[in-house]
Structure formats: C-alpha cells, structure tokens
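chain below, 169 aa
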Amino acid sequence: MISSVSEQLYIFLATLYGGMVIGFIYDLYRIFRGIFRPKKLATLIEDLIFWIVIGAAALVVLLFSNDGQLRFYTFLGFAMGALIYISVLSPYVLRCIILILKIIKKILSKLLHILLFPLRKLILLIKRPCRWILKKLQPIYLKVRRLKQLPRRWAKEMKKYAKLILKKK
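prediction:
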C-alpha cells in the first residue's frame, strides 16, 4: 500500500511521540528502581514487565497511526523520540517527579502522624499503670522464680550426695 508523504509524516511524528512516551516510561522505571532497589530476581521480573509495557506502548502507537505496519521510519521515529526525550526533557521531568514524590511523602508522613496521635496517647495511658503494677509485682515475681528453681537445685544436690555416698562404698 502506497502512502502519501503527509501520511508518512503523520506516522513519523506519531512514532516520534511514541518514542517520547517510551522515554517517559523509562524514567518512571528508573525512579521505581531507585526507590526500591530490587535484588536479582526482582530485577529480572521488573525488566520483563518493563519490556512488555514498552512493547504494548509501541504496538498501540503503531496500530493507531498506521494499522500496525512496520517501516524503517517508524523505528527511526521511536529511536529519535526516545533520544530527544532523554536528552532534553528527562532531567526536568525527573526533578518534577522526585519533587512531587517528596511532597506526597511529607503529606503522608504528617497524615500518619496525625492519625497515630490518639494511639500513642492510648499506649502512654496504658503504659504508666502497667509500669506501676510491674514495679509492685517484681518482688513477688523474684520470690516465685526462686521457689520454682528449688526442685532443680534439690535434684542437683541429691545427685551430688548420691555420687558421694556411692564412692564411699
């Protein structure tokens, strides 16, 4: 099927845009890996998921722009779009995303602090009487522990005396 130059230009620009989207997805992937620092198996799984998402994004762009036909200029458009995004836009986008994540983290931290305030007060309210009770019960606990060890000490002493008596015979 022969396409006009304007159609080819539209397809090229669509794949250029698709390459920029792929570059953005790569930035998100880099941020995700920077935050979670996965081990080898998790990295393998994440890489597989990343390539599936990239393939799906490229497929969607190709299907909507030129019914899924592969041409050299489509590959060129994807590559140039990704390179333009990574070299020009990526530093700014990374800074913005990291700033947004820091703001979200700060908001969630404050919200968690506010939500846990009653729980901390309740624990403090329960902790004071428990300390007082434990302080009062500690001498009783020590006496019970000594009494509990008596049979073991008696058995040890009996073995010692039994060995002594058996040696004399």
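The chain has a mean pLDDT of 89. The chain has one domain: 5-125.
thats it, cya
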